[in-house]
Design goal:
The chain is 48% helix and 15% strand. It contains 23 helices and twelve strands.
């Protein structure tokens, strides 16, 4: 059963520039912090694969420290975490370990040292869109995702411990969904992970800690991760496009309506409608912020391009993209510029592709004078498609290339636009299939490892793909390849891409000779014409190297 929340797909609301390398890294550190020896004396971070190659440009370093300080992914203090760690007296080291094919592309080991020389090591993986998985503790392979309330227990590998722990849960009337025990060696330390239906009290944790042979008991919480879900099968759920279409027919509802209803079954205690309104309000802010006030990105490759597109010559707009698509492209580029300055954005489904969904949906909604209720249904629709893509393929550039990020965002946007314009659920999936089909094979090759170029331009192309795909679908030009088969093809293509083309900044455009010298000079021309950027007309965006 797919237990992913819509607010994981259109979310987290986070500080940029990368959902996997910033928000995901921060969440790994937050989990590690909950297992750290106290008091904590110092911490070391060992970065592997894509994390090792691109951590500086992605803000991974600041995010890891922010997590150890207890900050959430949307806390603006993330960008100042180095200075704040120094103020709090927390020494840290960041070590690049290079490539290790046995590990996930986005892997970090957090090694925490206590004042009494105790040491706890936590291995974490950032699996895309800000979602994470804890894969190791003190050398033992484990698996924690935060999909449900989780208790982590470190104890001696000896008979009777598990019976005592489960007895405590039974006495406290706490239902266990899953229980897994891992050990590095017989008779040594073991680690048991309980996934339960509801969070436990401090009293229950204290009972665990008083159990003989228990060294540590902690409740693991991942802010912004999968919220608490209801127990048992959902009355409304799906795992793929075919099941989604059947569900829409059974319910007599659109994709957006089905996804909205599913969320209420998934998280009955949550005010999911209010949460989606918060997503929409953040999107409305992020698409206009840097058009009104351009800001220079961390790496200097972005500064004012969104404003330049927004203020293009009317004759140019009429001859090429038209007013709606021009606004959509400007909106999408503005989100990337905000993200690249470590501003707050909505990962949709990732930070690297965060401009496509808000850019397309809000620009078309403006043209239609659509109400917020209609826009929200379009966003629920986008979340449904994103959940299918995440479950059956990947939305991580480090796993599947840019096709997994911008390609997925374009598919989500095409479907959302189709519903916004009155299309049927089948037409929505046709639009998504067309958009994704035409972005298959798109590689992830960020120049200097920054979520700047060509990321911003590819968000613009994702917008174009979404808008044209929606129009094709609404004109009843279907796709002979069903959506689920297109998703499967994307997963296979992603697996076939070499590591150099999956967010390592070691191939593609990132390896081009000019990319090696690209720097703040790329926006120097725009900075020099700052007075022009604030006029009503710009002939062409200037991007000289």
């Amino acid at each position: 059963m797919m237990t992913m929340s819509a607010l994981e797909i259109l979310g987290p609301i986070m500080v940029g520039p990368s959902s996997s390398h910033t928000a995901g890294a921060l969440r790994i550190a937050l989990v590690a912090r909950s297992l750290a020896p106290k008091p904590l004396a110092r911490v070391e971070f060992f970065l592997y694969n894509s994390f090792s190659h691109t951590h500086k440009g992605h803000g991974t370093d600041q995010a890891l420290i922010a997590g150890m300080l207890g900050f959430s992914p949307n806390d603006a203090r993330v960008r100042d975490s180095f200075a704040l760690a120094k103020e709090q007296g927390l020494p840290f080291d960041i070590v690049e370990k290079g490539d290790d094919e046995s590990l996930h592309p986005n892997t970090v080991e957090v090694r925490m040292h206590g004042a009494d020389e105790a040491c706890v090591s936590v291995m974490g993986e950032s699996i895309g869109g800000g979602r994470i998985r804890i894969s190791g503790v003190n050398g033992a392979r484990v698996r924690m995702t935060g999909d449900m309330p989780t208790i982590f227990v470190s104890h001696k590998d000896t008979p009777g411990v598990l019976a005592a722990l489960t007895a405590i849960l039974a006495e406290q009337h706490i239902n266990v969904a899953t229980m897994r025990t891992f050990r590095a060696a017989r008779g040594g330390m073991a680690y048991t992970i309980f996934e339960i239906d509801e969070a436990v009290s401090a009293h229950t944790l204290n009972l665990f800690r008083k159990t003989p042979y228990v060294a540590l008991a902690a409740q693991v919480s991942i802010p912004g991760a999968a919220p608490t879900v209801s127990a048992g099968p959902l009355a409304i759920n799906f795992d793929n496009g075919a099941e989604l279409l059947a569900l829409c027919e059974r319910e007599g509802a659109s994709i957006g309506e089905v996804m909205q209803r599913r969320e209420k079954f998934l998280r009955p205690e949550a005010d999911s409608e209010k949460e989606m309104v918060r997503v929409l309000n953040t999107m409305k802010d992020e698409v206009r912020d840097t058009i009104e006030i351009p800001r220079k990105s961390i790496g200097g490759l972005l500064y004012g391009q969104a404003q330049a597109v927004a203020q293009s010559d009317p004759a140019l707009i009429g001859a090429l993209m038209g007013p709606v698509q021009t606004q959509a492209v400007a909106f999408a580029m503005a989100v990337l510029e905000r993200s690249a300055t470590m501003g707050v954005i909505v990962a949709a489904p990732t930070a690297g592709a965060s401009g496509v969904v808000p850019g397309t949906v809000l620009a078309v909604a403006n043209h239609l004078h659509a109400t917020d209720d209609r826009i929200l249904l379009a966003l629920w629709n986008a979340a449904a498609l994103g959940a299918i893509l995440t479950t059956n393929a990947s939305v991580s550039g480090a796993e599947g290339g840019c096709q997994a990020e911008v390609g997925s965002a374009a598919a989500m946007s095409a479907s959302a636009l189709t519903e916004l314009l009155g299309g049927t659920p089948k037409q929505c999936l046709d639009a998504a299939s067309i958009a994704l089909s035409n972005l298959l094979g798109l590689v992830c090759d960020p120049v200097h490892g920054l979520v700047e170029h060509p990321c911003q331009d590819r968000n613009a192309i994702g917008v174009a793909a979404a808008i044209s795909s929606a129009q094709l679908a609404l004109a009843n030009i279907g796709n002979p390849i069903p959506f689920d088969e297109v998703v499967r093809a994307m997963a296979e293509v992603g697996a076939a891409l070499p590591a150099t083309l999956r967010e390592t900044a070691k191939g593609g455009l990132a390896a081009a000779p000019s990319a090696q010298t690209a720097c703040s000079a790329c926006t120097g021309c725009l900075a020099a014409t700052k007075n022009v950027l604030h006029t009503k007309r710009i002939d062409m965006p200037n991007r000289k190297k």
